[in-house]
Amino acid sequence: MTQIASNRPDLPPEIGRRRTFAIISHPDAGKTTLTEKFLLFGGAIQMAGQVRAKGESRRTRSDFMQMEKDRGISVSASAMSFEYHDFRFNLVDTPGHSDFSEDTYRTLTAVDAAVMVIDGAKGVESQTRKLFEVCRLRDLPILTFCNKMDRESRETFEIIDEIQENLAIDVTPASWPIGVGSEFLGCYDLLNDRLELMDRADRNRVAESIKIKGLYDSKLKEHVPKHLVEKFLEEVEMARELLPTLDPQAVLEGHMTPIWFGSAINSFGVKELMDGIGRYGPEPQIQSADPRQIAPEEPKVSGFVFKVQANMDPKHRDRVAFVRLASGHFKRGMKLLHVRSKKPMAVSNPVLFLAADRELAEEAWAGDIIGIPNHGQLRIGDTLTEGEQIRVTGIPSFAPELLQTCRAGDPMKAKHLEKALMQFAEEGAAKVFKPTFGSGFIVGVVGALQFEVLASRIELEYGLPVRFEQSQFTSARWVQGDKQSQDKFAATNKQHIATDHDGDMVFLTRLQWDIDRVERDYPDVNLTATKEMMV
Length: 535
Ligand SMILES: Nc1nc2c(ncn2[C@@H]2O[C@H](COP(=O)(O)OP(=O)(O)OP(=O)(O)O)[C@@H](O)[C@H]2O)c(=O)[nH]1
Ligand SMILES: [Mg+2]
Known about the structure:
This protein has about 525 residues and is an alpha+beta fold. The chain is globular, with a radius of gyration of 25 Å.
């Protein structure tokens, strides 16, 4: 195997060959398109689909929800596992839109690295910056792909400078583009001394890969027009002088990012990036947990839930928990301890994902992401072990920032609506509150578009048209305290009291003043903006 750097002791080979990473970027930079090409080169699919498919063309694997297909944006993270050369890749395509960043942030707790996609014409955008900061907090290694080089793009140096300055990370070029826009020919692979030429005619293949003996090999001139060779050589000489060379250790520590240039839609530059992930990307890493950390090479199996999704595929109407294995060698049928409930759980039908498709997983290793179908026992943040009372830490919980009332189009269907909303609440897709007074449900989310996703999913998955309306409340706070103080508080604030899907008490209001008043007048109760998911 071509492992050349590692920040871990020797791992069992099956674990050491795993690469688990998320693809992140500002909306529209090309994550889903890139994911599709990863699957293509990983041999997992025969033909790549398109984000916005017309007529006969295929849809992408990772945007499988109806709203994703309709709008051509990703609204939910999806996982995919496949082989690539000596490696096993577990890849998560994330949504770029900030209204869905809850999902992206949680995904970043379950991966060992991130592939940051940048649009060559736009450079570092607002959401790139935010996501980068989250990666930095977790010291996640980052590999960068500068996409859409087939269109008019910025100067290569300008892009690199912008990343270095805006994100305060060293950037080292792994490839160098030759020509821009309609003159873009391909890239010089600086790590392997190869000339890669792009095929504009067939988007599913790379035109030519030409082995070259260094930059001054005369073969270069045979394939590249003279004026482009001159500019390219000048740039590469400058880059070698001004930019740092690739330091694998610095990459693993998150201080340096190698950058590849390419065009995902033209399948260009993708294989080089994949080779780079195998070679420079991290092996499965240590997981922080309480009361002790978990190392991937530990023989006993442990894992944690970072995402729950109901009704992923109408063919399988169930709920699937996405579990990142933190340690050990998992085998189908194993009995694991569900630490939160202290109950054993037989994992008889674990699945491996290929986005909406899945296959039974006979086994899995630390680093893998598997799906566990269940009836609601598994929640985000839950830990599974072979018996030890240990809890994975660091999975963020989000305060609902926007509240709306949800009503069924048909008032007779209120009970059905309740069932649907409770499912989404358990999935973590929304917070759902049932007021003590009045009818309807109050739904809380982090980004406004989440209301639209919910409405669309409730209609499609439960056959219930619903509407979301402005609510009289704008803030929700969980009420904590002993039963007596809670009851006393509830008795005098009836108009504001609701319960969440676990039956826990929530205080709803539209005034910060109210929250301050409660804190002053009821010292025995505590109001919190998020509810700890672990009990
Ligand atoms: N010209 C050009 N267009 C591309 C390229 N890669 C992707 N696109 C287009 O860019 C648009 C957005 O691509 P997506 O793959 O959906 O981007 P995304 O990052 O997954 O978007 P969100 O998930 O919504 O954040 C689509 O119309 C793609 O066809 C490329 O290399 N060149
Ligand atoms: Mg997408």
